[in-house]
Amino acid sequence: MSDLVKLAEREILRGEILKLCREAAPLGCSEKVLRATVERLELSTDGMEQELYYLKEKGLLKKEHTENRRLGISRDIYMITAAGMDYLDGNGPDIMGIGV
User: Packing angle between helix 82-89 and helix 3-23, nearest 10 degrees?
Assistant: First the structure.
């Protein structure tokens, strides 16, 4: 697969992650939920961690760790930020690398 096609797939994946987190706002999504949903869209989840990191570093997502030791639950929850919502609504600055 060419580098250009891989880049396009990553941009689409980033856009879908943002849209999913907006739909789940204000509660957010776990990586497991994001993976399952993206797979249903027939997109590859290879490199999901890197794309979540990218969106977090751009300030479009934030990550919170939550756990319940009694129930044995521990997970990271990703939530869209105000900047992420503005970006999806077309009110923020253009950000290269995200296919919306």
Answer: 110
Q: Which residues contact 8 (CB under 8 A, 6 or more apart)?
A: 99
Residue 1 pLDDT grade (very low, low, confident, very high; cuts 50, 70, 90): low
Residue 70's pLDDT band, with cuts at 50, 70 and 90, is very high
Average pLDDT over residues 85-99: 82
Q: In the predicted model, what is the mean pLDDT of residues 33-58?
A: 89
CATH number at residue 78: 1.10.10.10
Domain membership flag for residue 26: yes
Residue-number span of the structural domain to which 56 is assigned: 3-89
Residue 98 in domain: no
